[in-house]
Amino acid sequence: MRVRYSCQFIWFDYCARHDVALRVPGAANTVNRRASTRRSTTKLVSDARRLAKELLRGRSEERWRHSRAVAHRASELAITVPETDRPLLVAAAWLHDIGYVKPLRKTGFHPLDGATYLRAKGWSPRLCALVAHHSGARFVPIERGFAPLMAEFEFEDGVVTDALTYADQTVGPGGRRMTVEYRIAEAIARHGPDSPNARARIDRVPYLLAVAERVESRLAEIRSR
Ligand SMILES: [Fe+2]
């Protein structure tokens, strides 16, 4: 089971890095159907990677390195989500921070700006909502007055949201791996003790720690099989 998952992650990662789409010559229908599904799922990841690269690389190397590492981390965590949701998770990881890019800024709240941009470009509502709500973002808008705009994106309380948040919360700004506790402290120090992020910590920090506990327990359960 673990070997099959690993091969799939390597496949996602390879396709994303090299923008590969499978080419399978006409054989049995089942094979073609599988190939077609795989083509569309790997295309989602490679499209997401391409857009993230286009928007982030050159504008913010640090943010690009972070997004790349979060996508890689999400690939590793994909075993904790249903197989059909794995490309969605990895694609959302590539795109989760594009809202920091200047031309996309509308509210200045990056999860919301990223999600709004993706929605306007026709990305799926689920992917847009994952970007809008990554890393407990819904606890911050109340402080910043963006709650009605955030409400346009439905919060998905489930394993994909957890995996995306855990991936983001275990990778620092430059792409360095860190614990969730260190990442929370680092972010509060970086944004400042009076920042909306810091003020939202009363609700957001327990949420992030609970996400970490859930994801780590899913990983432990999978590894014990
Ligand atoms: Fe991030």
Quickly list its features:
225 residues, mainly alpha, 12 helices, 66% helix, binds fe (ii) ion
Beta-strand percent range:
under 5%
What is bound: which ligands? Answer: fe (ii) ion
List the uncertain runs.
1-28
Mean pLDDT: 85
- The level of helicity is 55-70%
The outline comes out as globular
**How many DSSP helices?**
12
How far is the N terminus from the C terminus?
9 Å
Number of domains: 1
Structural classification: mainly alpha
- Reading the helices and strands in chain order gives HHHHHHHHHHHH
Largest sheet at a glance?
Answer: none
Backbone CA Rg = 17 Å
Strand count: 0
What secondary-structure arrangement, pairings included, does this model have?
Layout: H1 2-18, H2 29-56, H3 61-77, H4 86-95, H5 110-120, H6 125-132, H7 141-144, H8 147-150, H9 159-169, H10 180-191, H11 196-199, H12 201-223
The structure holds fe (ii) ion (FE2).
The site of fe (ii) ion (FE2) has 5 residues, from α3.
Describe this structure in words.
The chain is mainly α. It has one domain (2-223). Helix content is 66%, strand content 0%. It is built from twelve helices and no strands. It has helices at 2-18, 29-56, 61-77, 86-95, 110-120, 125-132, 141-144, 147-150, 159-169, 180-191, 196-199, 201-223. α4 (86-95) runs parallel beside α9 (159-169) and α5 (110-120) packs antiparallel against α6 (125-132). The longest helix is centred in the N-terminal third of the chain and has 28 residues, at 29-56. It is globular, with a radius of gyration of 17 Å. The termini are close together. Residues 1-28 have low confidence and may be disordered. The chain binds fe (ii) ion (FE2). The site of fe (ii) ion has 5 residues, from α3.
